[in-house]
Amino acid sequence: MGVTSVAERLAALVRTIPDFPRPGIQFRDITTLLLDPEGFQLAVDALADSVSGPVDLVAAIEARGFAFGGPLALRLGAGMLLIRKDGKLPGETIAEDYALEYGTDRLAMHVDACAPGKRVLIVDDLLATGGTALAAARLVERAGGTVVGARFIVDLIDLGGSDALRAAGVDSVSLLTYEGG
Fold first, then answer.
1. Other residues' Cβ atoms within 10 Å of the Cβ of residue 59
2. Is 62 among the residues known to form the active site?
3. Which end of the chain, C or N, has fewer beta carbons within 10 A?
4. Count H helices, E strands: the chain?
5. Which domains, and CATH codes, for the chain?
6. Catalytic-labelled residue, pool 22, 38, 92, 101
7. Over the stretch 140-174, which tens digit does the pLDDT of each residue have?
């Protein structure tokens, strides 16, 4: 039996669902990875191992980003900052609009969730165009925090999200890359 890389082991746990949510889309479903405790641990460890330098907060993006954000924050000795759809947080918030393929959406975080000077790592399950991650980065920066990077399980490289993050000065690491949308 040969040695299997981390990426190969994780890729084997991510299922592809063709034509979801519409024809021509190859949906990369990480819920199957979450069901596997060894794979889930491997993903969290690989994300943590990709981080150098101190992190004060892990900013996890709703909803699947929460699954990785909590364990990653604990592993890094950091707190967890929730980035949610607008209207979902109970306290006073700040919000950022971002572009979708058809229209816009809005992310929010508590106004007091990130103290000035905090070093923040953004985490989500999937990187496509980068709009969601860039909106999260703008929220952190508006609060006075410093974005030290962004981490993802999957990067759909043809959609340009990693390029958009790089252009914005955000270090981006993804555990798996897929061509096509």
1. 31
2. no
3. N
4. 6, 9
5. 53-178 (3.40.50.2020)
6. 101
7. 999 999 999 999 999 999 999 999 999 999 999 99
